[in-house]
């Protein structure tokens, strides 16, 4: 396969996955149809089936793609050692994706709420070790007295809950913001507030 064809394939797959995020978020897995997704991405339905033979295969690809995105967000845990820098970077990355990929966050939340029926054991393999590595890093900070004694898992849960709220409950956020999406300035203040609360809670200054 030529480089040009590879690039076309990559672009089409990315386009389909992003469009599928939106349709699955709005209609759920059961309510979504491949025809809906084809219409969303403005491609013939046959093109979708060329890349993804079934709706189930496409749905799984969306979920695993989202997990990869969030793993990329957490690379700061491996790149840096300073807890302030690591957590500030992680929170900002999570917040930014809540703003740029809100449909993906909703699809993920719906899958988890229903007990991960599609991901199943794949979720254990993909999520468990990854999360435990992050917990170990936080636990080491506690042992080194670089942060206050905290339960590492709870810190991660608070970060996930507060950052993903801006995607999963964006309609509520907009209602409370006079029925308007947050402006760039408001969103930056939100990032700084979440960061400040988390850091101060473990004994660090923002």
Automatic annotation (TrEMBL):
The keyword Transmembrane helix does not apply. Residues 10-70 form the HTH tetR-type domain. The keyword DNA-binding applies. Residues 33-52 bind DNA. Pfam families: TetR_C_3, TetR_N. GO terms for biological process: negative regulation of DNA-templated transcription. This is TetR family transcriptional regulator. It comes from Pseudomonas versuta.
